[in-house]
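Please decode residue identities from the backbone states below.
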């Protein structure tokens, strides 16, 4: 399970609220797995993640543009790479159906990526927004 701990808070209410939603989706999948219902929930979780990451990244990118974030081009590329990875997982789901391997990919490729991204990118972004708003 992923816990949205204090060290993952950026201090930006919108960003933190949306991160919590992403954590809840991933944790919902992990809880379902523990209850033996992971396969049934993968499709719903992947669909939500595809839609919600697009919304979340668009919200973050608006904040970056409004605050003239100097690392916007790089941050945007990172977001695009992640959206591509989520889409690949969605395509694999559509082609092969849900599996334990796919559940594992959602957990590691999405959950672990999100934690690293928050710590390395989003915290810098939130600090920039705070000092330039």
């Amino acid at each position: 399970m992923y816990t949205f701990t204090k060290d993952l808070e950026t201090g930006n209410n919108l960003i933190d609220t949306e991160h919590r939603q992403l954590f809840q989706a991933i944790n919902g999948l992990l809880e379902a797995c523990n209850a033996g219902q992971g396969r049934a929930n993968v499709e719903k979780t992947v669909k939500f993640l595809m839609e919600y990451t697009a919304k979340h990244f668009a919200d973050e990118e608006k904040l970056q543009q409004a605050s003239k974030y100097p690392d916007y081009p790089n941050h945007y590329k990172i977001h695009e790479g992640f959206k591509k990875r989520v889409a690949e997982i969605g395509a694999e789901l559509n082609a092969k159906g849900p599996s334990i391997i796919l559940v594992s990919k959602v957990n590691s490729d999405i959950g672990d990526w999100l934690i690293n991204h928050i710590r390395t990118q989003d915290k810098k972004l939130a600090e920039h927004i705070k000092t330039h708003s």
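Observation: The CA atoms of residues 64 and 70 lie 8 Å apart.
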